[in-house]
Amino acid sequence: xxxxxxxxxxLATATLLVGCSSELPDFTAAQVNDAVATQVEDTSGxxxxxxxxxxxxxxxxxxxxxxxxxxxxxxxxxVTVTEVDGTDVRFTVDVTRTYLTxxxxxxxxxxxxAAAGGSGTVTCPDDVDLERGARTYCQxxxxxxxxxxxxxxxxxxxxxxxxxxxxxxxxASEDGR
Length: 177
Hints:
Helices cover 21% and strands 40% of the residues. Mean pLDDT is 80; it is low at 9-21 and 172-177. The chain is elongated and about 65 Å long. Strands 1, 2, 3, 4, 5 and 7 form a six-stranded antiparallel sheet that branches. A four-stranded antiparallel sheet has the order 6-8-9-10, covered by helices on one side. It folds into two domains: 3-97; 102-175. It is α+β, with helices and mostly antiparallel strands. It starts with a strand and ends in a 10-residue tail after the last strand. The chain is built from three helices and ten strands, in the order βααββββαβββββ.
């Protein structure tokens, strides 16, 4: 699990909403999205797009969940408030899961099979975890029929993506599909 830290600074307009009250207003999803995107960009060098977070209460130990696209990977993360200092709210971003969506995986599998002489449309399930050894099954519609493909992740979630694609000779009912 990877952890990064960042600061959400209230905008002047949000500070004005506070008025004489000592309580900070809750952060909107848009404010959290922007802060998380900036933090991920600062640590990875790439700005995630899109970012989808829930709002966040600016109190220590409050949490929200985010999901964002970083290149061909999707990451889920917990965002936790660690410190509130005036109008600055410090938080951590803990990546809890890294995965590919089926629409991200299918072109990669298509490229792998094309290199081996296969052709046809590939469909893959959503949310394929990028843990070394994780396996999923895709299908490729070829001119001579549908072929089941076993796709194994040969890299870790933070490594350059490495997949092994093999024709799966098992009957679909044997693997629970």
